[in-house]
Amino acid sequence: MKGIIIVGASGFGMEVLWLARRLGRNVVGFLDDTTEKHDKQILNIPVLGAIDKCGKYRNNEFIVAIGSPRGREKVVSRLINYKVVEYATLIDPSAIVDKDVSIGEGSIICAGVICTVNVSIGKHSIINLNSTIGHEVEIGDFVTVAPNVSISGNIYLKDLVEVGTGAVLREKLEIGAGTVVGMGSVLTKNVDEKKVVVGNPARVIKSLD
Predict the structure, then answer these.
(1) Domain ranges for the chain
(2) By three-state DSSP, how is residue 86 classified?
(3) Cis amide bond preceding 69, omega within 30
(4) Nearest one of 27, 79, 77 to 53, comparing CA atoms
(5) pTM of the full predicted structure?
(6) If one looks up domain 90-196 in CATH, what number appears?
(7) Of 21, 35, 59, 134, whose CB is crowded by the most CB atoms within 10 A?
(8) Torsion sign (Cα): 65, 68, 74, 77
């Protein structure tokens, strides 16, 4: 089995290291553009240098451990330019995931997650700790679902959606690309793309560029 390079040496990068170790995977090192971290160790794993050093480690699998959907998309675009083509998909051993759930490359399913039936998760998406996903849910690419989110059935989260910690999404909704659902919000209506919604019930408070 190939080693893993974690791109992003901050807090979520440490959590992904923990997840990889729980799966028995060998983490070779981190890549991060923060020069102060270079040549240091995080949880006994070296920071090998900036992201543009990725070509030296092309024989490994990569995982991008950046919480922001837009930040993660930008980094993956850079890695593509450097011809990094192989990504790990990490599913914590404690997660309950139906055998027919589709999960794209580079995605991360954290501890305590439940994915029921007829669920599709795109590329480079994150389903964080203890979140639940009901039946017939489609999650796009570069989506971030924070911890303790409840996603009911028949929901479509388009690309680059971010759902904050503890949010609740009612069934039969569509959330437009690039939208942010604030932490603790209760979403009861469809949302257009590139909006920020907060509250109970959640309401649009602004649009994003």
Answers:
(1) 4-81, 90-196
(2) coil
(3) no
(4) 79
(5) 0.96
(6) 2.160.10.10
(7) 134
(8) positive
Model pLDDT for residues 79-109, shown as the tens digit of each residue: 988 887 799 999 999 999 999 999 999 999 9
Closest CA to 110 of 137, 147, 136: 147
69 vs 19: CA distance, rounded Å? 20
Q: How are strands ordered across the β-sheet holding 195-199? A: 90-91, 108-109, 126-127, 144-145, 162-163, 180-181, 195-199, 202-207
Extract the tokens encoding 102. 């589709």
Class of the CATH domain delimited by 4-81 = alpha beta
Residue 130 CA, chain-centre distance (Å), reads: 14
* Beta partners for residue 37, in sequence order: none
Per residue, the 3-state secondary structure of 110-170, as one string, reads: CCCCEECCCEEECCCCEECCCCEECCCEEECCCCEECCCCEECCCCEECCCCEECCCCEEC
Low-confidence ranges of the chain (pLDDT < 50): none
H helical segments located in the chain? 11-22, 69-81
